[in-house]
């Protein structure tokens, strides 16, 4: 069974280290918050859920990067994550990382590209 690709936003809405774009994904029949950001020219997307406890990361709506614009940060716990792979780099996440989501940038737009095995 194929899963439909879905538009997240125009490419121009994401700048390196800038605000992200929130969207939702259906996991196990439940709509869950997610976000996409641009880092070093590439787009990455994750469930909007800290690995330590299920709280959303953004410290203000669509703000996921720390002050250095190098790390994603949990506003509640201060846990730091790699924007490239969601890996925990420090804080209460205890080695657990963010849940990545498949995205693709094509023809000036960012798409969520789920497949049957998407977590």
UniProtKB/TrEMBL annotation:
Residue ranges annotated for the Rieske domain, each copy included: 6-112
InterPro entries membership: Rieske_2Fe-2S, Rieske_2Fe-2S_sf
Gene Ontology MF terms in the entry: 2 iron, 2 sulfur cluster binding; metal ion binding
Keyword field: 2Fe-2S, Iron, Iron-sulfur, Metal-binding
Entries under Gene3D superfamilies matching the protein: Rieske [2Fe-2S] iron-sulphur domain (2.102.10.10)
PROSITE patterns referenced in this protein's UniProt entry, alphabetically: RIESKE (PS51296)
Annotated Pfam families: Rieske (PF00355)
PANTHER family the record matches: PTHR40261, RIESKE DOMAIN-CONTAINING PROTEIN
This protein's name: Rieske 2Fe-2S domain-containing protein
């Amino acid at each position: 069974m194929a899963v439909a690709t879905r538009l997240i936003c125009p490419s121009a809405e994401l700048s390196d280290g800038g605000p992200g774009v929130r969207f939702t994904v259906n996991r196990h029949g439940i709509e869950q918050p997610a976000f996409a950001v641009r880092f070093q020219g590439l787009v990455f997307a994750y469930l909007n859920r800290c690995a330590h406890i299920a709280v959303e990361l953004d410290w203000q709506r669509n703000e996921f990067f720390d002050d250095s614009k190098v790390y994603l940060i949990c506003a509640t716990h201060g846990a730091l994550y790699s924007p490239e792979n969601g890996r925990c780099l420090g804080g209460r996440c205890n080695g657990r990382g963010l849940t990545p989501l498949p995205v693709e940038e094509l023809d000036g737009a960012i798409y969520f590209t789920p497949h049957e095995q998407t977590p």
